[in-house]
Design brief:
Radius of gyration: 20 Å
Number of domains: 1
CATH architecture: Up-down Bundle
Strand content: under 5%
CATH class: Mainly Alpha
Shape: elongated
Order of helices and strands: HHHHH
C-alpha cells in the first residue's frame, strides 16, 4: 500500500511539473504577443501620420520583442511561426529604410498584426 501511494504521489507531482512548465511557456508567448501587438499598433499610427522618425524608432523594437519568445512559438505553434516570420522581417526592414513606402509598410504591418492576433487567439 505504501508503494502504491508513493507511486501515485510521484505521478501527480510529475504531472504538476509538466503542466506548470507548459503554462509558463504559454504565458510567456501570450505576454510577448501582447507587447508586439502594442508595438504594431504604435507603428500603424506612426505610418498613418507619416512620421518617419517615429517609424524608425518603433519598427526595430519588434525584433527585440520577438526574440524573447520566438523559440517557444517555433516549438509549440509551428504553423503560425513561419507566417509571423514572413511579415516580421520585411516590416522591420521597411521601417528602417531611408524613405519608407507608406502603403507597402502599412500592408506589411497589418499582415503582421493579423498573424500575431491569430497566435494570440491560440494561446488563450
Amino acid at each position: 500500500m505504501k508503494k502504491l501511494t508513493s507511486t501515485i504521489l510521484a505521478i501527480v507531482f510529475g504531472s504538476v511539473l509538466v503542466l506548470t512548465g507548459c503554462g509558463s511557456n504559454n504565458s510567456k508567448v501570450s505576454e510577448g504577443v501582447n507587447k508586439m501587438l502594442d508595438t504594431t499598433d504604435q507603428l500603424s499610427k506612426a505610418i498613418d501620420s507619416g512620421d518617419q522618425a517615429k517609424v524608425k524608432e518603433i519598427g526595430p523594437n519588434l525584433e527585440d520583442q520577438w526574440k524573447v519568445f520566438e523559440d517557444d512559438v517555433k516549438k509549440d505553434y509551428k504553423e503560425i511561426y513561419g507566417e509571423i516570420e514572413n511579415y516580421l522581417d520585411p516590416t522591420i526592414a521597411g521601417s528602417e529604410a531611408p524613405e519608407f513606402d507608406k502603403e507597402a509598410l502599412k500592408t506589411l504591418n497589418d499582415q503582421l498584426t493579423n498573424a500575431l492576433k491569430e497566435l494570440s487567439d491560440k494561446t488563450k
